[in-house]
Write a structure and sequence with these properties.
alpha/beta, Rossmann fold, 7-stranded mixed beta sheet, 10 helices, 44% helix, 23% strand
Length: 254
Amino acid sequence: MPTTYEDADYQEILRLFNRYTHDKSFTIDSIKNTAIPLIAKTDYFLDVGAGPGIIADNIQPFFKQTVVVEPQKNYAESLKARGYEVHESEFQAVQLHEKFDFILCSQVLYHVKLENWHFFISKMKELLTPGGLAMVVLGAARGPYYDFCRQLNPNYGTGKQIIEILEKNKIDFHVEKKQAYYYPESLDEMYNLCRFSVLEGCLNHGIYTSLSLTEQEEIDRKIMHYARQCLTVNHNYELFFERDLIYFRSTQSV
């Protein structure tokens, strides 16, 4: 999954996100409170694009075995060192022979071309056990950040496209609507969080690097303008995202 950032910069901005948010915690809480009670059995858990493994670390105790797909070498090595079975590959290319009772894909599809999302969801569905459950966490097609991203990229992919895929294929699903808040301490941090979100999600590596230097500078100017608008009446910065937590099964709806 290509990224616009050098590894050190990428890690530093991820630390900023983790420092200023509860984003991971509501995903973890939803899995514990919504997903696990709905799963017929809890033998095998697959985390697609686990990153640093924050969610996996919290969910793996509920399962007998956890398998991780993670293409970034530094994350893959860290996960292996912690005892996970790791496939250092992109999900589209990996060959898995097990079936899984729960499959998680959190904030990964931004790095996958929109035309490949259907295949991605189909593969997740095929890897589910009977009675198994899959979960996709993605930005939602609502809220001020979504409106901003649509100005930069009218084809910005969100939970809306996943829902359309599931509806088209008559797959049982339900959606939990969540809100993620980040409270950076300075304009510089606010700008870096906004820029990272845009370049890694709204535009992604391929789109951004295809732009001319002038176009990239214009994008950065718009991001700074958006960051300045995130100053609240209490003189604190607040970055706000709408999230879709989309659950689906291997069964089809009637």
